[in-house]
Specification:
Elements: E1 2-7, H1 12-22, E2 34-35, E3 44-45, E4 47-51, E5 75-79, H2 80-88, H3 95-112, E6 120-125, E7 134-138, H4 141-148, E8 153-158, H5 164-183, H6 189-208, E9 211-225, E10 230-241, E11 248-251, E12 259-264
Parallel strand pairs: 8-10
Antiparallel strand pairs: 1-8, 2-3, 4-5, 6-9, 7-9, 7-12, 9-10, 11-12
Helix pairs in contact: 4-6, 5-6
Length: about 270
């Protein structure tokens, strides 16, 4: 089985640098971006890792000369209110102004932390009981989106491919899934409809070529740095031949009246 493991857009290393340099605060209002857990509820992340120049044509401040849109220099950490504001008011919040705001904020954070102890090392850990025991078959773009949206990282794998046509098809699906995971939060309603349709079409093409898509999401925990622990969503996706003996029928209710295909999660 061929395996491709990758971060979704912004790498984990870049993400750590951005949050570390920003001190867990919005670069405009400096509000804290991780809300502490309350009672039985987990901590909540209320900040966004925002592109200064959008990688999407037609997106806020799009600049085709920016060849690596997910580079640390093209990212700024904002609360969700100011993320929407700067993307709605692009004439006021130009790329040059956002870079200046980013530099000023990171300088302020550095000054505040000069006499502070070093933060704890950042690590991602699994939460007992959250590991998915199996992967469910995904039959549409909506199914895929429900697994991928909001994820921080993913593991993508596929059965061995035997022709260039199969390679091209699986690669197109993987790229489309990655694109959706990276930019779904920035899409308007129409763009989302088009992309979900494209994903459904690709799932159908895979089915025609004898491949089924399986997936599951797992909530892990990221710890360390300056803030409290927060959720870290990891997605597992597999493209398997429909004849793969690992695929089994899974009962979804206790009556035997409903079942679906599943595959082991490991």
């Amino acid at each position: 089985m061929a395996v491709r493991q990758q971060a979704m857009g912004i790498s984990e290393r870049t993400r750590k640098i951005l949050w570390g340099r920003s001190g867990n605060r919005c670069a405009i209002c400096r509000v804290e971006l991780v809300v502490d857990a309350a009672g039985p509820d987990a901590a909540s992340v209320v900040g966004d890792e925002c592109h200064i120049t959008s990688p999407r044509p037609g997106g806020p401040r799009h600049d085709p000369s920016v060849l690596v849109p997910d580079d640390i220099e093209n990212l700024i950490l904002l609360c969700r209110v100011h993320h929407k504001m700067v993307d709605d008011q692009v004439e006021t919040y130009t790329a040059a102004l956002l870079r200046e705001l980013k530099a000023n904020h990171e300088g302020w954070v550095s000054e505040q932390l000069e006499d502070e102890p070093s933060p704890a090392p950042i690590r991602v850990t699994r939460i007992k009981g959250n590991e998915p025991p199996y992967l469910l078959r995904l039959r549409s773009g909506t199914d895929v989106a429900s697994i991928v949206e909001g994820a921080r990282a993913h593991s993508f794998s596929n059965d061995e491919l035997t022709s260039q046509a199969e390679v091209d098809l699986v690669a197109r699906f993987a790229d489309q899934v990655e694109f959706f995971g990276d930019f779904s939060a920035e899409m308007d309603a129409g763009q989302r409809v088009h992309l979900l349709h494209d994903l459904t079409t690709l799932v159908g093409e895979l089915d025609e070529h004898g491949f089924w898509v399986f997936g599951a999401r797992e909530v892990q925990r990221i710890e360390g740095g300056f803030g409290p622990p927060s959720p870290w969503i990891v997605v597992t996706l597999r493209v398997l031949r429909s004849t793969n003996p690992a695929i089994v029928q899974l009962r979804l209710d206790g009556t035997g009246g409903s079942s679906d295909q599943s595959a082991p999660a490991v």
